[in-house]
């Protein structure tokens, strides 16, 4: 018979050996409890950009810089923004740029916080589609909207402009009241024609 100590517990005649957890395990468990509130405050209730999701968005935006060789340096104007508004994969890149840099002022869905609501039909500094890119690039409101030309690649500005333009008319619930004036609808993007098969063969 084993002489190992037993607990005072007995269930239907079944006794239980007294085998306590190792001290290091108990202290590790206690330390994890003490650490968890600080972890929660830092990653889930702290500054924007600290969550795993936000960090992923930043990493994704960085990775897209490697993809820009595919499209070259874009021109920051209305037709280019309209063109990329219709390209879902590139609009998602613009969304990741927005989530990484713009949510603190404009809200996660563009509903507006310190900055204006981007999901209604009213605009303060935009009259035509190309103005979105100009505002992002150069700033507006005497610095209330900072310029991003010194922090973002020109392609990121074009793509985030396409994403912001696509937010128009979504009217996110609980958004900031409309500011500015209503403007005409965005122009339809120009559809690029694919080269004919015989022309490709000749080239």
Automatic annotation (TrEMBL):
InterPro entries: CcoP_N, CcoP_N_sf, Cyt_c-like_dom, Cyt_c-like_dom_sf, Cyt_C_IC, Cytochrome_c_Oxidase_Subunit. One of its GO terms (molecular function) is electron transfer activity. Residues 190-203 have a biased composition (Acidic residues). Residues 89-168 form the Cytochrome c domain. Residues 171-203 are annotated as: Disordered. The chain crosses the membrane at residues 24-42. Gene3D superfamilies: 6.10.280.130, Cytochrome c-like domain (1.10.760.10). The keyword Membrane applies. It comes from the Bacteria. Keywords: Electron transport, Heme, Iron, Membrane, Metal-binding, Transmembrane, Transmembrane helix, Transport. PANTHER family: CBB3-TYPE CYTOCHROME C OXIDASE SUBUNIT FIXP (PTHR33751:SF1). This is Cbb3-type cytochrome c oxidase subunit CcoP. It comes from Stieleria neptunia. The gene is ccoP.
